[in-house]
Design goal:
mainly alpha; MetI-like fold
């Protein structure tokens, strides 16, 4: 297993280099001059030229790219064009908030979605299965930004029981968590249900029941462990997607996370912050995928035997 982990860690290097090249190329061709935006429309041409020279924006593409890669290797993501603070500090000040929001959301979705999917598979074609499946489709279909606005109107404006924005108290987390967690719960429920239905129709499940084993043991020991592989996959992917995809939710609820900060940085053409934030998200996503692969070995002995 340790050789597999080491090999996957080494494979992250070309992946991160590819991410750096893509995001750097996109920033290079994006219209808009950061120096012009910082100094304003009334700035003189010579002042703009001097600021561009100071920020290194007049250098050729490859010179800027190689310089940025060298900075990343040494742990330096550059200096923010707006705040003049290190981009790494700007990102790390906000990234933990997004990680906590994503972790709480995934935990809520696991608690709600996976047990619901198991019950739907066990009670296939029952009233519970039909109602839960419809609710899951509804949760999948509702846009997050619309759901967030409706929650604000109901719980904050009409009832006045929850704060509108920010993350100062535990009450502040409820609406953002529901906004992201309901759709994720629908995804987990659908995947768990379909995976469990496929497993419980296998011959070894019928054999276990024929031997007189308890239904709970058949479901949780024999069926669930074999059905968890696709569920673990989608949980890992959704957690990684939440790290970079919670932009709308963070914007709606004014959450000081990495998503809303990236929107502000994109508008200001703050290249070091944008590139550093995307790189951090890609690095976190790569580690999550590695963790998912390791979990495969603990859940499925067939996968674990490949690494011995």
């Amino acid at each position: 297993m340790h050789k597999f982990i080491l090999r996957r860690l080494l494979l992250m290097v070309p992946v991160l280099l590819g991410v750096i090249f893509v995001i750097f190329s996109i920033m290079w061709i994006t219209p808009g001059d950061p120096a012009q935006i910082l100094l304003g429309e009334a700035a003189r041409a010579e002042d703009i030229a001097a600021l561009r020279l100071e920020m290194g924006l007049d250098d050729p593409f490859m010179v800027q790219f190689v310089r940025f890669v060298g900075q990343v290797v040494t742990g330096d993501l550059g200096v923010s064009f707006n705040s003049r603070r290190p981009a790494f500090d700007e990102i790390t000040d906000r990234f933990p908030t997004t990680i906590r929001l994503a972790a709480i959301t995934v935990l809520l979705a696991i608690v709600v979605g996976i047990p619901s999917g198991i019950l739907c598979a066990v009670k296939h074609q029952s009233i519970f299965d039909n109602i839960t499946s419809v609710l899951g489709l509804v949760m999948l279909s509702i846009p997050n930004f619309w759901l967030g606005l409706m929650l604000i109107l109901f719980f904050s404006v009409q009832l006045g029981v929850l704060p509108v924005s920010g993350l100062g108290t535990p009450l502040h987390w409820i609406m953002p968590m529901l906004t992201l967690g309901l759709s994720a719960s629908g995804i987990y429920m659908r995947f768990t249900r379909s995976s469990m239905l496929e497993v419980i129709r296998q011959d070894y499940i019928r054999t276990a029941r024929a031997k007189g084993q308890k239904e709970s043991k058949v479901i949780f020991k024999h069926a669930l462990k074999n059905a968890l592989i696709p569920v673990i996959t989608i949980v890992g992917l959704s957690f990684g997607a939440l790290l970079g995809g919670a932009v709308l939710t963070e914007t709606v609820f004014a959450i000081p996370g990495i998503g809303s900060f990236m929107v502000i940085s994109i508008r200001a053409r703050d290249f070091p912050v944008i590139q550093g934030a995307v790189l951090m998200i890609a690095l976190m996503f790569s580690f999550i995928n590695l963790l998912v692969d390791i979990l495969y070995g603990f859940v499925d002995p067939r996968v674990r035997s490949q690494y011995k």
